[in-house]
Amino acid sequence: MALAVAVALPASAFPSGLPPGAPTFPNPWAAFQNLSGCHMGDDRQGLAGLKDYLSHFGYLPPPPSSSPFSDAFDQDLEAAIATYQRNFGLNATGALDASTVSQMVAPRCGVADVINGTSTMARSSSADAHGRHLYAYFPGEPTWPPFRRDLRYAITATSETSIDRSTLSDVFARAFSRWAAATNLRFTETASESNADITIGFYAGSHGDGEPFDGPLGTLAHAFSPTDGRFHLDAAEAWVADSDVSRSSTPGAVDLESVAVHEIGHLLGLGHSSVPDAIMYPTIRTGTRKVELEADDVQGIQSLYGSNPNFTPTSPATSSREMDSSAGAGFRPDRVFVGVVAAVGLLLVIVP
Known about the structure:
By secondary structure, this protein is α/β, with parallel strands linked by helices. The chain folds into two domains: 1-16 and 108-352, Collagenase (Catalytic Domain); 30-104, Muramoyl-pentapeptide Carboxypeptidase, domain 1, CATH 1.10.101. 20% of the residues lie in helices and 13% in strands. The protein has helices spanning 47-56, 75-87, 98-104, 165-182, 256-267, 295-305, and strands at 10-11, 108-109, 114-115, 118-119, 150-157, 186-189, 198-203, 219-224, 230-234, 238-240, 253-255, 320-321. The strands form three sheets. Strands 1, 2, 5, 6, 7, 8, 9 and 12 form an eight-stranded mixed β-sheet that branches. The protein has a two-stranded antiparallel ribbon with strand order 3-4. α4 links the parallel β5 (150-157) and β6. The longest helix has 18 residues, at 165-182. It is globular and about 55 Å long. 51% of the residues are buried.
């Protein structure tokens, strides 16, 4: 799992927050740090950019082309910030306090948190003290139909990444296995794009889906809701695929499998969760590995697809890999577009 709203919305996990103060690694949203303390009635350079950010993730409608966002802190901005704060469990004052700004600059999934005016983060006062049942779905609850429980995925665009194909296959197989373990879904890698339900690729900048990536951090990835099947990752990220990301000396290191598990949740129909430990939480810290489904993720996905009677939280199933010799085909225009909230250079948002 930003919001291009066409027919559906994408999905695109990512870093859960950076420490207060200026980020130690270039971040497209770092300038928001200069807005800490702003509140209703202020007029501060940079607020227009913050409005663009909030619009991208669904908290504000896009401005008309003839009248771009201004730097005025108005009622609409205050309401949007308050909604954002409620979604992330912050004090909903509508003002830009330090904790809100710190959350906003965190790398994340590109999928929107609010789609067509409805929050996908499902935070409500009726949730129990343990934060259960805060998983959410996309509007209309799109899913893969009952006759499609064996899904094929193809890794189709790798020229923008230096990670070798074998390592990518291993990472994505493990990521899909997390969801297969909890459900009756099965996933198989195929070499044929034309034979795939899901396509995975690394892209830089604008790449044809209306949700351009923004360079290191910011949006990590994004994915589209069922049954679109597209999953895109920002090639500019410092992806860690075959080593311990917590020991990486690379600035801005992001764990590929962690982001992949999150985005696959979007591909299957899950929106973002308000539970910080959940896979479907929109943000993830750099240098962090987060791949195990939490109770919130399991409850959400099993509500859509049923449960695997052999499921145990610590024993993900193994996804198989099929390598056939069919030639890859191009993007399938017959697929229904599911709006992406540009996610994820996942917020890696992934998106989206």
